[in-house]
Specification:
This is DUF4397 domain-containing protein. This protein has about 475 residues and is mainly β. It is built from one helix and 39 strands. The chain is globular and about 70 Å long.
Amino acid sequence: MKHNNNKGLKPALAALAGTALITLSGCGSSSDGNSDSGSIQLYNGTTNGPTMTLSIADVARTTAELGNVTSTHSYTTDDYDFAIQYRNDQGNLVDIISDTLSIRNDTKTLLMMYGNIEDQKLLSVDLPYRETSDMFSLQMLNVTNAERNFDLYMAADDGVFEQAELVGSAMFETLSASTEHKLDDYTFYLTEAGSTTPIWQSDETRINVDDALVMAIRPSYDNSSNYLTVDIITNGNTPYSLKNKDAQAQVQFYNSMDEYPSAQFTASKGDFQLSTASTGADTLSQTLELAPNSYSISMLDEQGNTLVDNYLLTLEQEQSSLGVFYKDAEYGPRLMSVAQNLVPNSVSHQVTVVNLVDEYAGLPVNKLDIYFTLDGQPISQTEHHLDSVSSYSAKSLTLLDKTYGFYAILEDNGQQIVLHQQGAVDVTADGNYIMILEADANTASGYKLTTLHTVAAQGEEQTQ
């Protein structure tokens, strides 16, 4: 397979040579009745990697984000060149790993990429097809870290841990032995290896596919806490992604209303109440850790007077949210919730642009076009843009590990107007970004862009 130029990856990753493919044996997926053919699927379990494209024999197939799989693709039995790739700033596919694999008769080859993307860890698991039955097989692969090993327990229906059956051990980077189970509803439990104290419990989960299932146990970055996520990979296009049933959620707040230079935020439910410390305008509040539920949110001034009261905010398990307070031109103070992505992405980054602009030169503005450009690049040539971002809404895109120019463009009767522009918007730190565009009478343009850096276990904010 032709090797593409790796320019654009982190230097440590770009310098690595091709990685040897480690092949493990598993027990199979459901038979499709074909002879002399097999299939291939990619699972993206990396902690900080980009969206990955699987290419076979120089043909780009499908993509997988963190915790997801590509479609399963069938091929006649033979040896094939393959590559796991990402798209660069020009939209071209660039190799992360390229190698050769054998498609075996009546076998699915599951490629599992995991760990730090710079280490290029890749396992290949062969799963012979299974005959149709009312059973499924299960194997585990622990891709957390070398210091952590687990025991898996399963309880039928919504069984408690005391009713659960010990299935086996998930040792780091070792595919467990295959076990057989009836199609049913299950609650899964994890303990530290050798312990009988659960550290992780799933919600009740219906397993209704008679495939060979592979359970990948990986770190979770949906929250700043040290949680685990369990992805159960089937022949389908979407894994069962199981969260910790007992996990908490978290929220921070951002006050864009400059008439309130300092504010406190409170989450309430019944007799429960939790508040932040006093927080300046245009800065992030401290993080409130809350049980998953729906809460009444209030904003108070420095004297404790209520400015906004009883706004609804709903949080799910492991969710990390940013509550943005802003002033609607027609309805006054409002609250919008924006998801915080805390995955420590290092090759590419999710950037969410929040548009709080509602007027220009005294006239109402309903939407803006947002562009991110490289040095010397006009907006007409950039691959990175968000079209028609409505006022009081947010849209997301993916940017590579670079520094960009930022343009907010207003189109008025066929005329494009630069509402705000800014050079050197840096998105090279591991993690992701929320960028809030809002009015500011103290800047030359009359607007400002506030960049909030979101990443697990830390939070930074910078106003530009």
